[in-house]
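Researcher: I'm preparing a figure for a lab meeting and need a structural model of a single chain. I don't have an experimental structure, so a prediction will have to do for now. The sequence is pasted below. Please return the structure as tokens so I can convert it later.
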Amino acid sequence: MKATDGPGIAVIVSTYDRPDALSAVLRSLAAQTYRRFEIVVADDGSGPETRVLVERHAEESSLELRHIRQEDRGYRLAAVRNRAAASTEQPYLIFLDGDCIVRPDYVDRHARLAEPGHFVHGSRVRLDPGLSRIAIERGLGIGRWSGARWLGEWFRGRVDRFTPLLRVPLGPMRRLSPRRWRGAKGCNLALWRSDVLAVNGFDEGFQGWGFEDNDLVVRLIRNGVRRKEGRYAVPVLHLWHPSRGPDPDSRERFERRLRSDAVRAERGVDRYM
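Model: Understood. Here is the structure written out token by token.
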């Protein structure tokens, strides 16, 4: 498949008040070999600096870039992702966090993995604070580093893993765990928009950090969508940020979901359609 073939794609980049990281991510998206995609910045209430930044990137980019912002009323990632999904008509969605830099063939490889009835979960490599600063300053350069360079950074302890950056053609092995929800993260998740709408998107009852992405994947699987492994194909470079534990209310809500048979979110994307 050529870099210009494949589905029309919307890359939905979620962000909140981290414009330096967002700028690096948008620069990495502007350098993609695959061009049949648009960018939707899903902003969970950032200040005016983010708006100015997105406007500047939109003026400089040949890609369509839109800014979907909601009022800052606490952590509402599920809601702003729903707003972004409702705002596009592209058939295939890639959810990406605003602190995850991508390599130049990232969208192209996601397009090659896209398959009806499947979602694709990609992997991530976490960078330490020093390497994250370099990545923010030289986002395009770090995306083109060789495997040997990354192996060296792993030996120095500046990245948590090296193997996700390898390119391994897994073929049919990508479908070995079709009903596995564990490990799927919204920072690097691709799926058909029609499948998202069928389960009413993200559940906006999740208003604390964590589990809104696991919940979406569980409901997708219950609705017949199958997992396709994206490891060794579509890694992201996750910039350092202070760690935090999941919100207890979100954890409890997700545990209740696992005990139920619900498929559709009660408060979801249909609010914005």
